């Protein structure tokens, strides 16, 4: 579909009139700024339809492409973003899929630390009869998740904002917590380091501060047999397993082809959920 700019002109018309840089010029500028996928980025920026010069300037200055565009493609779902909200990573699709396979068709899921709500949006899309809640401590993230979700979005520190009726009813608790160890945050790529708030990245001394809190505070929310799923990095396996065991959960792990690890804790007991 052809994208029009606010003046009603297609980008290619404006390029012909010399008002906007050509596709080739744009690719060169983006490549010089270090954009690895310069061709794809140029196409997306041209298709956006807003002031191309302004969009390119923001991108060349290092703002993440997804923030410049205002959306990210998350496994086929267009997730809207707001400034200051964590950009969902493509590797987190694996976490969403793992959560989806453990969510009964009419089950209940909670996306803790939801950010833009990408994982919850994925679950709403793939399990349309399920009930999906999302929560985050950051009011900007909550507003962004409301842009993306049909279900309930609440603000609060971990479980604080969730309705108490959910206790014992949750089939799947999924969380992409901040899990970068504090002393590694400075080594992140500038797009993350300079453009994403610290509270979205910093996971404490070993990156597992929130995973430990969730494991300890989860008691009473998951139904017997329900699952907690949290994305971690490879060296965090032992710490995650210990935290799950301390919280009364049976730990296991799954790993994606790209190396992404998801720690899974199952609440013992219960009957298998209905299909
Ligand atoms: C790594 S981002 C992940 C966002 C989203 N789940 C995703 O995958 O794109 C972590 C999120 O955790 C939120 N967060 C940090 N501390 C929190 C807390 N104590 N309670 C709830 N959310 C928290 C941050 O605001 C941020 O949105």
In short:
With 275 residues, the chain is of the alpha/beta class.
What can you see in these coordinates?
- With 275 residues, the protein is an alpha/beta fold.
- 35% of the residues lie in helices and 19% in strands.
- The protein is built from 11 helices and 9 strands.
- The chain has helices spanning 11-16, 23-32, 38-48, 52-60, 65-69, 92-101, 118-126, 139-148, 190-195, 209-217, 237-246, and strands at residues 71-74, 77-80, 108-112, 131-136, 152-155, 170-175, 222-232, 250-255, 261-266.
- The strands form 2 sheets. A 7-stranded mixed beta sheet has the order 5-4-3-6-7-9-8, sandwiched between helices. It has a two-stranded antiparallel sheet with strand order 1-2.
- Helix 2 (23-32) crosses helix 3, helix 6 (92-101) crosses helix 7 (118-126) and helix 10 runs parallel beside helix 11 (237-246).
- The chain is globular and about 60 Å long.
- The chain binds S-adenosylmethionine (SAM).
Q: Considering DSSP H and I runs of 4 or more, what fraction of the residues is helical? A: 25-40%
User: Mind summarizing the main beta sheet?
Assistant: 7 strands, mixed
Helix count from the secondary structure assignment: 11
The beta-strand count equals 9
Small-molecule components bound: S-adenosylmethionine
Low-confidence stretches: 1-14
**Sheet with most strands: strand arrangement:** 5-4-3-6-7-9-8
Radius of gyration: 21 Å
Order of helices and strands: HHHHHEEHEHEHEEHHEHEE
Q: Structural class of the secondary elements?
A: alpha/beta
Q: Mean of residue pLDDT?
A: 92
**What proportion of the residues form beta strands (DSSP E)?**
15-25%
Shape: globular
Give the end-to-end Cα distance, rounded to a whole number of Å: 39 Å
């Amino acid at each position: 579909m052809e994208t029009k700019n606010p003046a009603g002109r297609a980008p290619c018309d404006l390029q012909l009139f010399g008002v906007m840089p050509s596709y080739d010029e744009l690719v060169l500028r983006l490549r010089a700024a270090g954009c690895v996928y310069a061709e794809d980025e140029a196409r997306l920026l041209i298709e956006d339809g807003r002031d191309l010069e302004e969009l390119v300037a923001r991108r060349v200055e290092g703002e993440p492409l997804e923030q410049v565009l205002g959306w990210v493609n998350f496994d086929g779902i267009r997730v809207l973003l707001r400034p200051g909200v964590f950009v969902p990573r493509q590797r987190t699709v694996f976490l969403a899929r793992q959560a989806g396979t453990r969510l009964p068709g009419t089950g209940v899921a909670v996306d803790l630390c939801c950010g833009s709500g990408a994982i919850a949006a994925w679950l709403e899309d793939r399990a349309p009869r399920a009930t999906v809640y999302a929560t985050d401590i950051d009011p900007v993230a909550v507003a962004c998740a409301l842009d993306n979700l049909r279900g309930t979005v609440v603000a609060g520190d971990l479980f604080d904002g969730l309705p108490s009726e959910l206790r014992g009813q949750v089939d799947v608790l999924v969380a992409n917590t901040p899990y970068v160890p504090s002393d590694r945050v400075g080594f992140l790529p500038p797009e993350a380091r300079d453009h994403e708030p610290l509270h979205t990245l910093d996971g404490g001394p070993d990156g597992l501060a929130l995973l430990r809190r969730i494991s300890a505070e989860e008691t009473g929310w998951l139904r017997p047999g329900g699952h907690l799923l949290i994305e971690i990095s490879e060296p965090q396996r032992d710490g995650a397993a210990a935290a799950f065991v301390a919280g009364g959960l049976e730990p296991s792990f799954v790993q994606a082809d790209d190396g992404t690890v998801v720690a899974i804790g199952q609440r013992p007991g219960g009957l298998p959920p209905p299909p």
